[in-house]
Amino acid sequence: MKVTAWNNGSHHSTGAGYGFKIKIEDRDAHFDRSWGTVEVELPTGEIVESNIAKDSFWGAKCRELIDQQFGIWLLDRNLAPWQKGSPPVFELEHISGNRFRLSET
């Protein structure tokens, strides 16, 4: 599934406030409310755990996987900050259970 980088509007150099936005149809097809968290394997091999046990993830507007480690990775790769309206796009592959793998497109 295609996901886009996300930021809460405050591009912190610490990586805080970054994540990946999931489309509603992809969330509904590949994520389970009972998981609580998901594990995302970054292209570096690092595993990042992201909380999905929140109303904002399951609502109609937000749907982001958020963690400071995502921001650190984006910043280290010079993928953040990005020009307004042009976030980078990635592939998020559902491996099994609550495990996913992120790759650059």
Write the layout of secondary structure elements.
Blueprint: E1 2-7, E2 18-21, H1 24-30, E3 37-41, E4 47-51, H2 55-58, E5 64-66, H3 68-76, E6 89-96, E7 99-104
Parallel strand pairs: 3-7
Antiparallel strand pairs: 1-2, 1-6, 2-5, 3-4, 6-7
Describe the structure.
There is one protein chain. The chain has one domain. Helix content is 19%, strand content 35%. It is built from three helices and seven strands. β3 (37-41) and β4 (47-51) form a beta hairpin. The longest helix is centred in the last third of the chain and has 9 residues, at 68-76. The model has no long low-confidence stretch (mean pLDDT 96).
Q: Tell me roughly what share of residues is in helical segments.
A: 10-25%
Helical region count? Answer: 3
Our count of domains comes out at: 1
CA gyration radius, whole angstroms? 13 Å
- How far apart the termini lie comes to 11 Å
Query: Would you list the SSEs in sequence order as H and E?
Result: EEHEEHEHEE
The strand count comes to: 7
Report the β-strand fraction as a percent range. 35-45%
Oligomer: single chain
- Coarse morphology: globular
Main beta sheet: strand number and arrangement?
7 strands, mixed
User: Average pLDDT across residues?
Assistant: 96
- Report low-confidence residues grouped into runs of 5 or more: none
In brief, what are we looking at here?
The protein has one domain (2-104).
List keywords for this structure.
7-stranded mixed sheet
